[in-house]
Amino acid sequence: MAAKAPSNGLGHFVTKLKPPLAATPTADTGGEVALILKQMLTDISDRLRILDGLDSSASTHQNDMQAKLIEWQTKLVDLSNAADKAVAASEAQALQRQTLAGEKKQADQTAAEETGAFKLMLPPYIKEIYVIGLIKGKILASCAA
Q1: Of 131, 91, 65, the residue nearest 139 (C-alpha)
Q2: What is the largest CA-CA distance in the chain?
Q3: 14 and 8 in contact (C-beta within 8 Å)?
Q4: pTM passes above 0.90
Q5: In sequence order, which residues have a C-beta less than 8 Å from that of residue 5 and are 6 or more positions away?
Q6: Environment class of residue 4 by beta-carbon count within 10 Å: exposed (0-12), middle (13-18) or buried (19+)?
Q7: Alpha carbon distance 78, 86 (integer Å)
């Protein structure tokens, strides 16, 4: 059975290697080469199995991290929304305080104007109020007696 040369253009290298391998003095060199090649194949398959395990572990870890990222992004958005609501509530309260402060200022101004008007209008009537109070007191005293 003749060995076929590889179709990728490496056939002349294989033919060059055959005579040196055949010219070796020991007969069991081919067996040793086969043993070394089998050990290399075993080593390669072990390494592939380890790499597959690492790949699946990395994939699982990546999926877990992706899930945590989504969870934390959701929490961040929730906190951002809560902060926005708090700012809006604070601004609404500030506006309400400003409105109440304006109403209080207006009420204070109105009270000051009315107090001034009362103080201007009251002096002419103070004497009359005093006299009416005396008359009322005398009436109550005579009715009680």
Answers
A1: 131
A2: 159
A3: no
A4: no
A5: 11, 12, 14, 15
A6: exposed
A7: 12
Six token digits for residue 89: 């509530």
* pLDDT tens-digit readout, 50-98: 999 999 999 999 999 999 999 999 999 999 999 999 999 999 999 999 9
Report whether pLDDT(25) > 70: no
Cα angle at 16 between 10 and 20, to 5 degrees? 140
Give me the amino acid identity at 54: L
- Residue 61: both structure tokens together: 């870890």
What is the chain's mean pLDDT, rounded? 84
- Three-state secondary structure call for residue 25: coil
From residue 83, how far is each of 3, 29, 30, 65, 76 by CA, in Å? 77, 78, 77, 26, 10
Give the integer Cα–Cα distance in Å for 92 and 96: 6
Q: Are the C-beta atoms of residues 28 and 18 closer than 8 Å to each other?
A: no
Distance of alpha carbon 65 from alpha carbon 57, whole angstroms:
12
Under 8 Å between Cβ of 14 and 5: yes
Task: Please report where in the chains the tokens 């934390």 appear, as a residue.
Answer: 72
